[in-house]
Amino acid sequence: MEDKSYSHLLAPLDLGFTTLRNRVLMGSMHTGLEEARDGFKKLAAFYAARAKGGVGLIVTGGFSPNFRGRLHPLSAEFSSARAARAHRAITDAVHEQGGKIALQLLHAGRYALHPFAVSASAVKSPISKFTPSEMSHRQIRKTIEAFAKSAELAREAGYDGVELMGSEGYLINQFICKRSNHRYDEWGGSYENRIRFPIELVKAVRARAGRDFIIVFRLSMLDLVEQGSTHDEVVQLAKQLELAGVTILNTGIGWHEARVPTIATQVPRAAFSWVTEKLKSEVSIPLVTCNRINTPQVAEDILASGQADMVSMARPFLADPDFVLKAEQDRADDINTCIGCNQACLDHVFVGKRASCLVNPQACYETELVLTPAAGKRKVAVVGAGPAGMATAVAAAERGFVVDLFEKNDHLGGQFNLAMQIPGKEEFKETIRYFSRRLEQTGVNVKLSHAVQADELKDYDEVIVATGVQPRMPNIPGIEHSKVIDYQTLIRDQIKLGQRVAVIGAGGIGIDVSTMLTEPEHQDLDDWLKDWGIDKAISHPGGLYPHDEYVSQRQVWLMQRRAGKMGKGPGKTTGWIHKRVLEKRGVEMLSGVNYDKIDDQGLHITVEGQSRVLDVDHIVVCAGQTSVEMLSNALKAMNVSVHVIGGADVAGEVDAKRVIRQGIELAARI
């Protein structure tokens, strides 16, 4: 039963010395602005927009309490009065909008990307280049003091609290677990000794920051790595953290080196709220749950069922700064929903670029990508209602242009209609829903089933061509054989395939199709957790147990012409998940393939000089795209101002992040 009032989500939370206006915590995200020139001015605008949008408590990206704790040599540090003064721009901007904000203090430990890395023990992480030095007793004490000093400075800077990053496998977590703590002094060995570091740290922070200051502790409740904590150990630590002075316990799921997806779109919504619930009866301070909560209803259901006292959402506030406000106003359908794709947020940060959002390119560009009112009621035509066309039409209409949107099909959404049918990409339908709403609200005149001709467009001030792409058919002898089908036809018409299928092309689409073809018939949350080896009792260390993996009944071969590694197409932070899924399901992945011919016997290939015949029922072609753009030349000949964007501009691999940003940037400048 839906509670449209979201009474639990919007209820205030009394912390004793202060009250949060609702149960929504905006989780910590590194944006890349923390280190950028003039970055704090941009960060202030970014956080102020989310405070104005109604968030109860914002948590910043991670700042290190000292030099050795930095993620990389140029990472943000918060350890001086000068830093505190600079941060005033952020805290003042948030407070002006009635919000509250906490500074996250994060020490990278062995995850540091520099040779000065330190940790509980000199044990290198599997995802790091550097082996950390083992911290001496003096270094440990100095690090605790650094955290306490930074918390005191955060208070001076106007922050309402701090979040101590004790999860995701960073330094505090490294002390807690046997996996990375091999010491035998008072800071290692027994569990009591291993948790001394977080306990002493919280006590020191509370002593320096005062009693009326929020301390959030991000506690790793499910490590998802070997030699991680058990549930009983998590309970023991949580109780001691409460006694030491923690105000709120936030949930952390999985170390960065864990080989289990935790936030990507393949993860079911609210997949880990049960983890927080297990701790709920053990402590009396508020608990926050997190990961893949992206609608007010999902959040409301978690809180109403008593699984947590607050919900943390991070990326949903990149997608829509007004998420809470829209929930308050019973406008949940107007929310630009996070689709969990990682492509413009985590993937950007991973390579040192500024974070943004695929569905909202204005995120982290609040002061730069601005849609200013247009002078006069100029007429704009947008041809093609895929992601690029819809985003452009909405942005142009927001500026005050009179916009007509033409689409040859009888529906909106373009390639997203295909994407949302891929298992684990169902969220893409939310983006079509959001843009459809905005087209209606901004008064765009949508003309479906209308293959527009050039002469119909001659009276427009601006024409934007966003006609997308069509599948590219490679030149292979026999490509017209009845066994062959292109990916668009397969997905659109939901063609039933045989038990033996070859997939030509291992880019993002080839991987998606292979995933779809090997998906189990029915999979609920418990099946998903079991498939990834997650022990719901958390009785095994790290919450992982040895398990049987689902192997598909259908035999699929996934092939690429290029030699070398597969899975380079998908995003940096999600490519490994796709690859792991296909390995688990028994998909045979072949690279350096030459396609010789297709006939009744099947697909004839040559791999590493060896000829093979794959006796397959069907061959699915996912060999890239070609542009279907033919309008622009005719329009230029008529002296019409024309712009070509999206797949019509660059066919390449389908890239919604690029095409939506391109469209909105164009709408901002015409």
TrEMBL record:
UniProt keyword annotations, A-Z: Flavoprotein, FMN, Iron, Iron-sulfur, Metal-binding, Oxidoreductase
Cofactor: [4Fe-4S] cluster; FMN
Ranges of residues in domain FAD/NAD(P)-binding: 379-637
Domain of life: Bacteria
Keyword match Metal-binding: yes
Any single biological process term in GO: fatty acid beta-oxidation, unsaturated, even number, reductase/isomerase pathway
Enzyme Commission (EC) number: 1.3.1.34
Pfam families the record matches: Oxidored_FMN (PF00724), Pyr_redox_2 (PF07992)
Gene3D superfamilies: Aldolase class I, FAD/NAD(P)-binding domain, NAD(P)-binding Rossmann-like Domain
GO molecular function annotation: 2,4-dienoyl-CoA reductase (NADPH) activity; FMN binding; iron-sulfur cluster binding; metal ion binding
Keyword Iron set for record: yes
Start and end residues of each NADH:flavin oxidoreductase/NADH oxidase N-terminal domain: 9-333
Family: In the N-terminal section; belongs to the NADH:flavin oxidoreductase/NADH oxidase family.
Name of this chain's protein: 2,4-dienoyl-CoA reductase
Record lineage: Bacteria, Pseudomonadati, Pseudomonadota, Gammaproteobacteria, Vibrionales
